[in-house]
Amino acid sequence: MKHSRLFTALQEGLQVEGPLHVLRPPAGYDLAGLTDVSVGAVFYPDHQYWSAMGLVGDGAGRAATLVVVPRSKTLARVMVNDAIAAGGLVIVDGQKTDGIESIYKDVRKVAQIKGVVTKGHGRLFWFQAGETPRWNTSITSPDGFITAPGVFSESKIDAGSTLLAPHVDALKGAVADLGAGWGYLSRVVLQSDAVTRLDMVEADKIALDCAAKNVPDPRATAHWDDALTYQGGPYDVVVSNPPFHTSRDGDPDLGRGFIATAARLLTPRGTFLMVANRHLPYESTLGAKFGRVEELDGSGAFKLFRATKPKR
Ligand SMILES: C[S@@+](CC[C@H](N)C(=O)[O-])C[C@H]1O[C@@H](n2cnc3c(N)ncnc32)[C@H](O)[C@@H]1O
Prior knowledge:
By secondary structure, the chain is of the alpha/beta class. It contains nine helices and 13 strands. The strands form two sheets. It has a seven-stranded mixed beta sheet, sandwiched between helices. Strands 2-1-3-4-6-5 form a six-stranded mixed beta sheet, with helices on both faces.
């Protein structure tokens, strides 16, 4: 069996003396048999995984923090800063494709690295918390919205959502926004007085907390949940700009799952409005889950579907 970088580091001299808190490990991340360990998870499916193992905690009283580097470079830096602020030993583990090498270079300028493991196209290193690297962790949120490092499209309104917006501003009845992010589309949906209720379903807790602030309307409710298993509705309309990849990989199955959820949650006369990257093959799933599918609009990069007559 191929050992993880963490397992190898523990074999080769990494000593964690006391409780270890792990920031944002994806489901299945190898905690190498560590016993005194807690996990901080903000992505709902990961949270469910670690919670089922009884490991979710806030890291109070920790002796060490392990940062599992995410794709977002700004978020990775914020997480390293948080780990340094918590004090004690800081361990950082990441893939080259997620920018671990530049994080390593920046940390090395301000801290003495105590150990390094490079393997599996990535690097794990550890050091004692001290000075914070001189890096910029600020983001520019789109005008009029609150966003946070690492949430989807943190600095600009997504072009797919912009394409969908003119089609969701005159809806009626009970509406769900699947993968609501920081709430851009949800706010547009609520421009219509005929919308009676809006459920924002989002897996990223940080994005959802932004959505709750960006959509301060009594008709809106934020649901921290997995859109694939979410139980709610029935809805007159479901809108979605579904994710086209999981935390790391391209994954049209996720979008297909969102389509199945929409069909499951709609009333028989309900409508699903979805924008998708033009290259993703969603037509057959839409055709399997809905009696009628139209392409309403499109651009070079995106296509916009309206699907009705959901099949159970
Ligand atoms: C393409 S973004 C759209 C965000 C938002 N609607 C907008 O217009 O800016 C897709 C969103 O789905 C969320 N997401 C990913 N997997 C999810 C899941 N399993 N359940 C719910 N939301 C998920 C992502 O965190 C992301 O915010």
